[in-house]
Amino acid sequence: MAFTHFWNKNSGYMRMGTVATGRDIKKYCCIFLTISACLGIYGFFYYENQYTIHVDGRVVNFTGVEDFIPPFINYYPDLLVAPEHKLIGCAIPKSMSQLIINIMCLLYDEHRFLTDNNSLNDTWTTESAGNCFDCNKKDLRCFVRKTYEILKNISDYRHHFREMDGMAAHAAPLTWMCNFEKDLEKWDLLMIGSDFEERKSSSLHLANILTRQGFNETLVDKIQKDMTIGETAHSTHKSSHRQEAERQIREDPYIRDLLHKIYFFDYVVFPFKRDVLDKKYQTNFWKVPEE
């Protein structure tokens, strides 16, 4: 005996008993497969990613951030290895990635790197010029809005993962990089600042990591010294364009609002100072679930 359900607008669902013939089974199988296919298509195009946030080792709930860009989307794991010393590095776009690439190339093959007269300040890749996201180069509102829209689409729907967007990779939150969604606790985070004291502190941190992994002292000293002098051609922290962008961010609440929605969780996951954020995001407004 098989059961099917029919909708009755007056009494709700009614269960009707029917005798299952061979033709009935085929018919119901076709109906079932059709429904399953429709659900599969819906799930493919409209599946939304779920994510969990841990703060100080505890799961926390957020409210009022439903339209924020979620963390831990595995989008751009640019991993570099020095296998002899069991070291993996990750170059994060626009976060002194060229310096990290150069360091890892040196660690991978010191002899070739030095024989070719390379240095840590070399630029090995080029970036194409042009209007970002078809925005006027001075229209920061347009660029930030389109950045938010494309990152939101990537985070919401799985089918956007088929092709990586170069601009999105450059603008994506740090939590999207390096397979952080799986192995964040295994990484030594190297906080590299733009001024001399910050770079000096970072170079010391890296030197300790390299020494721990068994690299020779002469090489470690060279890297530590070279990190504090010179800059790559990609460096932008002193440029007039950056200063103008920072001015627009300070003065335009629309731009700041979108930037908070894009990068807020980076300030939760990583040990960044939140005093640069708007005041409502500087406090711990999340809730810890009751156990």
Shape: globular
Strand order of the largest sheet: 1-2
Judged by helices, strands and strand pairing, the structural class is mainly alpha
Rg over CA atoms, rounded to whole Å, is 26 Å
Q: Are there runs of 5+ residues with pLDDT below 50, and where?
A: 1-22, 27-50
List the defining traits of the structure above.
single chain; 291 residues; mainly alpha; 2 domains; two-stranded antiparallel ribbon; disordered N terminus
Summarize the SSE layout with pairings.
Blueprint: E1 2-8, E2 12-18, H1 22-46, E3 53-55, E4 58-60, E5 79-82, E6 87-90, H2 97-108, H3 110-115, H4 140-156, H5 166-171, H6 180-183, H7 196-212, H8 217-226, H9 240-251, H10 253-269
Antiparallel strand pairs: 1-2, 3-4, 5-6
Helix pairs in contact: 4-10, 7-8
Pfam families: Sulfotransfer_2
Transmembrane segments: 28-47
GO cellular component, one term: membrane
Task: Write up this protein.
InterPro entries: Chst-1-like, Sulfotransferase. One of its GO terms (molecular function) is chondroitin 4-sulfotransferase activity. Keywords: Membrane, Transmembrane, Transmembrane helix. With 291 residues, the chain is mainly alpha-helical. Helix content is 43%, strand content 10%. It has ten helices and six strands. The strands form three sheets. A two-stranded antiparallel ribbon has the order 1-2. Strands 3-4 form a two-stranded antiparallel ribbon. Strands 5-6 form a two-stranded antiparallel ribbon. Helix 4 packs across helix 10 (253-269) and helix 7 (196-212) packs antiparallel against helix 8 (217-226). It is globular. The two termini are 46 Å apart.
